[in-house]
Amino acid sequence: MNEVIVIGGGPGGYTAALRASQLGKKVTLIEKKQLGGTCLNVGCIPTKSLLDSSHTWAKSKELFYKNEDADVPWETIFSRKEKTVQQLRKGIESLLKAGKINVIEGIASLDGDMRVIVNENKDLSLTADNIILATGSKPALPPITGIELPGVLTSDEIHSLEKLPKSLSIIGGGVIGIEFANIFAELGVKVHVIEAADRILSNMDKDISSQLKECLEKMGVEFSLNKKVIQIVKDSSNQLKIDLAGVESIKSEKVLVAVGREAVFDPLMLEKNGIIVEQGKIKVDHYQRTNLPGIYAIGDCSTSLMLAHVAMAEGKVAVEHVLGLSPNPVVYDYVPKCVYTHPEAASVGLTAEEARSRGFNIEEGVFPIRANGRALIEGEPAGFIKVITDKSLGRLLGVHLLSPHATEFIAQATIALQLEATADELISMIYPHPSFVEGIQEAALTINHGAIHLPLVRN
Questions:
Q1: Which of 177, 280, 335, 339 has the fewest Cβ atoms nearer than 10 Å?
Q2: Could you list the residue range(s) of the whole structural domain that residue 354 is in?
Q3: pLDDT tens, 235-286?
């Protein structure tokens, strides 16, 4: 008998399996497609590879040869992405093998009494003391007429594009849509983003939303905000035409539907087994337990914060709780949220609006990236660093970055929030110079008009 069965081999699932193996448990991992899940195969990793390549291409053109007619090396970019994915997938396979984890390829479903069957084959049934559900998510498809037309792609399908389109419309101005807008705009594709809300990245700091939109517009991206898509049709010239509410319509060669993702758990037969699902997610407690003893759920199928690093953290919590180790539950306020555009955006903690809604009397410090030496060295002066503190105690409540390398140095802010650091403690540190991260200190200093690299303000 297995001590732990993990269903799903994405970041949360393979992390849970490896952690359980480290702690001496006999583990079986069941995966229906490819190890690594959405993140590795059609999400985080390939998208960031494309972003790195697109930025390198755009910067090289700007700095060295400025040839507007140069052909984009799409085959090389595509091949680099594929090689990266394959190398990392082999790495996961090696880790699971080294951990002596039994990996089974197939579709798993629950059959009561802590039993799992694979591919609806009763002959291949497994039992376990504990089961961890990590079945992930899939692209959400809104009910739009014409969404099934050839050339209308999901964020999964767009990674199979073997030829660069001349034009691309993107339905959705969230993280996925905005990252792809950046990629294709830097590669010279005409991009138009359609968003139902009044701003892009609506769950992030408002200044990040507005300034990143400006940066993308300088790349040539066009936006239609506060717009509802009515239908998609093929016109007489074989272009895809998106009709919006009112009289506006947009034409393009390809359409990307990027309105978010939804949990996948259909094969599990959750209702038949009595597992509670609420608002499209498996209901869990702080330790990732479902309502059935011994069954846990982690990652996209159970959390509203669909991030690979959240799934990994939840996987560790679930496994350590199985072993009675009293793990600390995930504190979602302290989860960094990242957008890998150019410049990058990253946030941790509360926005100003969230802080005020929780009753805090706040102070904000903002430092513009154009005043940072490293930004000028790299030729990327757009963006800012913002810190939000509680006015009475000086405690750090949130940090919001729009800056090159923001997704790297947001980690320092995450540590500071977890340690309940104050603005004074950020100020008292010594930072490397020149660096982007020293902007966090400067932002904290601006609260009392003490930033060194901004015009002097006398108190």
A1: 280
A2: 343-446
A3: 988 899 999 998 889 999 999 999 999 999 888 889 889 999 999 999 999 9
